[in-house]
């Protein structure tokens, strides 16, 4: 089982809809979880971090964490064409030290 | 701009040549990371510095790769005797020293093409 798994997509949603991106991880000891956005040809940009079970909201973004189910998700409300990008889930796994372990990313396409 | 910077942004080299990349982290960040990303994959960890000390190295970091951070500020990543499989985006990230947070901020990357 891979350490961090994401559906590669593409996930297609119409403008104004809610986009839901999901990520599962294998190490129950993981404590820190991140979502990065990466536009084609660019580097990853940190958009959300979450450390405790529950929801964390920042503008149109909501991160959700369920450690019992080893599941973290990102909701994007009122999706815009400019949200079209690859979204990378990253997890800090204790035995990996301070390094982040990334999933392969989910490609989101928002159509106008 | 106070973000992470990397130089060069693009590098084309012939197989067997040596290349060196530079990373300047966010000024108040004492943690610095190198990652490598290939098409369709997430970034893969290579190595980590806290100040000038190289504390963590991935098994991906073969003996052809060496990284330094001599004064705890900028860092260099050198690849000797490049191979076509080294073609990738090399990403540098930095983070503040905070035992509760591993938030890492990436630079624009150096895209390496080995011909």
Short description:
Chain A has 112 residues and is an all-beta fold. Chain A has strands at 4-5, 11-14, 19-25, 32-38, 45-50, 54-58, 61-66, 71-76, 85-92, 100-102, 106-111.
Give the key terms.
heterodimer, A: 112 residues, mainly beta, B: mainly beta, four-stranded antiparallel sheet, 11 strands
Describe, in plain words, how this protein is organized in 3D:
The complex is a heterodimer of chains A (112) and B (115). Chain A has 112 residues and is an all-beta fold. Chain A is built from no helices and eleven strands. Chain A has strands at 4-5, 11-14, 19-25, 32-38, 45-50, 54-58, 61-66, 71-76, 85-92, 100-102, 106-111. In chain A, the strands form two sheets. In chain A, strands 2, 4, 5, 9, 10 and 11 form a six-stranded mixed β-sheet that branches. A five-stranded antiparallel β-sheet of chain A has the order 1-3-8-7-6, with no helix packed on it. In chain A, β7 and β8 (71-76) form a beta hairpin. Chain A is globular. By secondary structure, chain B is an all-beta fold. In chain B, a hairpin with a 6-residue loop joins β4 and β5 (44-50). Chain B has strands at residues 5-7, 10-13, 19-24, 31-37, 44-50, 53-57, 65-68, 75-79, 88-95, 105-106, 110-114. Chain B is globular. The N and C termini of chain B lie far apart (33 Å). The model of chain B has no long low-confidence stretch (mean pLDDT 94). Chain B contains no helices and eleven strands.
Summarize the main sheet of chain A: 6 strands, mixed
- Mean pLDDT level of chain B: 94
Measured by DSSP, the beta-strand proportion of chain B falls in: over 45%
* Secondary-structure element series of chain A: EEEEEEEEEEE
Largest interface: A-B, 25 and 25 residues
Number of helices of chain B: 0
Shape of chain B: globular
Give the uncertain stretches of chain B in residue-range form.
none
Oligomer: heterodimer
Task: Please render the helix and strand layout as text.
The complex is a heterodimer of chains A (112) and B (115).
Chain A: E1 4-5, E2 11-14, E3 19-25, E4 32-38, E5 45-50, E6 54-58, E7 61-66, E8 71-76, E9 85-92, E10 100-102, E11 106-111
Parallel strand pairs in A: 2-11
Antiparallel strand pairs in A: 1-3, 3-8, 4-5, 4-9, 6-7, 7-8, 9-10, 9-11
Chain B: E1 5-7, E2 10-13, E3 19-24, E4 31-37, E5 44-50, E6 53-57, E7 65-68, E8 75-79, E9 88-95, E10 105-106, E11 110-114
Parallel strand pairs in B: 2-11
Antiparallel strand pairs in B: 1-3, 3-8, 4-5, 4-9, 5-6, 7-8, 9-10, 9-11
